[in-house]
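Usage

Read records sequentially. Each one opens with the input sequence:
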Amino acid sequence: MNTVLLAFGSKDEQRIDELLDTATSIVDPDGTIVLLHAFDRERYDTIAKRLNVDNAAEISPDDIARRSRIGREIAERLDRAGVDYVVRGAIGETSDAILRQSELEDADLVVVGGRSRSATGKALFGSTAQKVLVEADCPVTFVKEQSETKEKAAAPA
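and closes with the structure output:
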């Protein structure tokens, strides 16, 4: 895969390793990972304020994504691994931002994270990952959040 779009947000901190392992194992050696941090307006303004941005008009969503804590952490890991990447930011509904950016980047694959939810939970609240899985023009890899009980379970003797 030449272009892999890796969507991330603040809720993905628990699965950064899995998301990065997935994206880096799939992208071609000369390919690029597009890191996309989609923000709702409130989250964007909160991060901009934390970064001491005086005039939000002077900074782009790409800048905020690059300067956010999770964006910096992911970028640092990719730098150490020697993987080519670009950082993008988007304001708006997460699934729409992922779908729009995957088209703009002509992504060969999208990597998204999420958690298991009941059918009722999906029907009531929707699911970003579910919408991306159904509507993306390219293949999508879903990285499921590991449950705490699975992570803490002892290995069989």
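Summary fields computed downstream for this record:
- Confidence is low (pLDDT under 50) at residues 149-157.
- The domain at 3-152 is CATH 3.40.50.620 (Rossmann fold).
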